[in-house]
Design a protein that fits this description.
Blueprint (H helix, E strand, L loop, with lengths): L2 H5 L9 E4 L15 H6 L1 H6 L4 E4 L3 E2 L11 E5 L6 H13 L3 E7 L8 H6 L13 E3 L19 E4 L4 E4 L14 H16 L4 E5 L14 H7 L4 H5 L5 H13 L5 E5 L5 H8 L8 E3 L23 H14 L7 E2 L9 H5 L4 H17 L3 E5 L20 H12 L4 H11 L36 H6 L4 H14 L1 H5 L1 E5 L6 E8 L2 E8 L5 E4 L12 E2 L3 E5 L2 E4 L4 E7 L8 H9 L6 E4 L10
Helix pairs in contact: 6-9, 13-17, 14-15
The structure holds 1-deoxynojirimycin and calcium ion (CA).
1-deoxynojirimycin (NOJ) binds next to loops.
């Protein structure tokens, strides 16, 4: 690892982030919707996870077309979530427990019920008209722009009073702000400072790469097809003044060591990531890309997965390439689930009963041993799974509902759409947290706003708290391990066996310490040749199973087995092919098979 990275140590690189979707964490007043008092009542649980920072999805005043991503007042709290007093209590109580708070902020668009837009849409002369993007109807139809949430896929909606079309990259209730207007930028910086002054520690910045637009409004459909392979997000993320605005935002609001930012970077590639987060650029601190979570998407259909499952060599290469982006500067993040993604164990592990626990532990091991700030989504620590709704009426998510309408209006295959949504639909990740075995999983005494997964009877926090070998206990121990071993945060990462189709192996090295991580991402037992010669008595430092079998430098890896070995001497070099052949010629060593487990064979920390 280069000295540079050591010199640039800081708290947000060392943090583990836990994302809370407030709608679904804990309801305190029986209306079926999670709220701030609910979160406050569960702070000791959150503390028990060992995480450092909570990312809270939006709680500002909102008509909730998109569950708070449509803000109607940036200075007030959504009625469903509670009051400003509750918010202040939450900040204080989190800080008392040494947990930081990262708020979600949405500045690409507002709600159409925000007073700015309510005014803007009255007349072209209204001072707020220029807060948004418009296409005057006398110029004919606007050039095509795609909307992520519009049932017709059209990002322009007609407004009668002004005889013009307004732009909305998301739903028609979410008009895009015009960052080209300096008054808009100033108003946003005021908002950010207001929340920093309330004591928050950072912002997760929604759709931030979309803020700058080419306001000459060229026809771009062909360019999008060719240059961006029909990915409108990528086109939207390449506005002409984006970095200028981010640098201004930094100067105005972020030039202080006690805050951090996390950019939602859909449409951003490896080549460009450092433009956002390299220290000397003075823009943002961290970003999260979408290339990982979009692996395996088919070209046809909407968020449809290719048949055939995970292509592990491709995944390994992708995460390795992203690691390398930040080798000399900037800093990465790693995640497998958010409120926009399905449950990680369903999508990246295996939620069949016999594999669910073990594969959830494997994914936790992966996230906590990579060189990037890990982001967990509430419920990951329990191995919560996709709910797999059967009918469109069960969904509450605007994306799924409007895409369904779109597919239907095109005469498309709605059955197939529903099948795909069972795997990738966002509501899978939004079902209420499963606290205990009591009715409604202990989430609410009322009717939950979104159905609760029936499997709460056996997948819940209370049961896992009691069970020494649960996913929850494993999660807490691995979090501790990461906190106590700087090599897991700052150590250099090296991928081994890149082409192995089932096993993901890498090392982390810092100063005198080297760890070897071996993850069997498949549901098959794999006889795996180790890339290092390990002593026959070697015990794994971490094992997500009880069994461990090493013979002739080969491990019999059970399905989804995850192992961490170390500390190994740093000078140890991975075996290349010739050396491997020599090992194979040796007479067979003694066979070793014994029980080991994370609990017994410690985490000497
Ligand atoms: C990204 C957010 O994560 C997502 O939930 C939301 O729907 C869109 N941005 C629009 O704000
Ligand atoms: Ca409530």
């Amino acid at each position: 690892m280069s000295n540079k990275v050591v010199r640039d140590k800081n708290w947000w690189k060392e943090s583990i982030i836990y994302q809370i979707y407030p709608w679904s964490f804990k309801d305190s007043n029986g209306d079926g919707i999670g709220d701030l008092q609910g979160i406050i009542s569960k702070l000791d649980y959150i503390k028990s996870l060992g995480i450092d920072m909570v990312w809270l999805n939006p709680i500002y005043k909102s008509p909730n077309d998109d569950n708070g991503y449509d803000i109607s007042d940036y200075y007030d709290i959504m009625r469903e979530m509670g009051t400003m007093e509750d918010f202040d209590t939450l900040v204080k109580e989190l800080h008392d427990r040494k947990i930081r708070l990262m708020m979600d902020i949405i500045v690409n668009h507002t709600s159409d019920e925000h007073p700015w837009f309510a005014d803007a849409r009255q007349s072209r002369e209204n001072p707020y008209y220029s807060y948004y993007h418009w296409w005057p109807a006398e110029k004919g139809k606007p050039p095509r722009r795609y909307s992520h949430f519009d049932p017709a896929g059209n990002a322009w909606s007609y407004n009668k009073a002004t005889d013009s079309y307004y732009l909305h990259y998301f739903s028609e209730k979410m008009p895009d702000l015009s960052w080209e207007n300096p008054d808009v930028r100033k108003a946003i910086y005021d908002i950010m400072r207001f929340w920093f002054n309330k004591g928050i520690d950072g912002f997760r910045m929604d759709a931030i790469c979309y803020i700058s637009k080419d306001t000459t409004w060229p026809e771009v459909e062909e360019i999008v097809k060719e240059k961006y392979r029909s990915d409108w997000s990528a086109y939207y993320a390449h506005g002409p003044h984006l970095h200028e605005y981010l640098q201004e935002m930094h100067r105005e609001t972020l030039d202080r060591p006690d805050v951090t930012t996390l950019a939602e970077a859909s449409g951003i590639t490896k080549d460009e990531a450092l433009l956002f987060v390299k220290e000397d650029r003075k823009e943002l601190h961290m970003l999260y890309h979408f290339e990982g979570v979009q692996l395996g998407f088919a070209k046809e259909g909407y968020k449809r997965l290719e048949p055939g499952g995970l292509n592990l060599p491709e995944m390994k290469q992708l995460y390795t390439d992203w690691n390398n982006v930040f080798a000399e500067g900037g800093w990465g993040t790693i995640y497998l689930g958010t409120h926009d993604q399905p449950r990680m164990v369903t999508r990246w592990g295996n939620d069949e009963e016999q594999y669910r626990e073990i594969s959830a532990k494997l994914l936790i091991t992966f996230l906590l041993t990579m060189r990037a700030t890990p982001i967990f989504y509430y419920g990951d620590e329990l191995g919560m799974t996709n709910i797999r709704f059967e009918k469109i009426e069960d969904y509450k998510d605007i994306e799924t509902i409007n895409m369904y309408k779109y597919v239907k209006s095109q005469g498309g295959d709605t059955e197939r759409f529903l099948k795909d949504a069972q795997i990738t639909g966002r509501d899978n990740g939004r079902t209420p947290f499963q606290w205990d075995e009591s009715p409604n999983a202990g989430f609410t005494t009322g009717k939950p706003w979104l159905k609760i997964n029936d499997n709460y009877k056996f997948i819940n926090a209370a049961a896992q708290d009691r069970d020494e070998r649960s996913i929850l206990r494993y999660f807490r121990q691995l979090v501790l391990l990461r906190k106590h071993k700087p090599v897991l945060t700052y150590g250099a990462y090296e991928l081994l066996d890149p082409d192995h189709p089932q096993v993901y192996t890498y090392t982390r090295t810092l100063d005198e310490e080297k760890l070897l991580i071996v993850l069997n991402f498949s549901k098959e037992e794999v006889l795996y040749k180790l890339p290092f010669v390990l002593d026959i008595d070697t015990e794994p430092l971490v094992n997500n199973m009880l069994s461990f079998r090493l013979e002739n430098n080969e491990i019999t890896l059970s399905p989804y087995q995850a192992l961490i070995f170390g500390p190994l001497p740093t000078e140890l070099q991975p075996l290349r092919d010739e050396a491997q052949a020599l090992v194979e010629e040796q007479p067979s060593g003694k066979m070793k098979e014994k029980n080991s487990s994370l609990e017994s064979n410690e985490l000497a920390i």
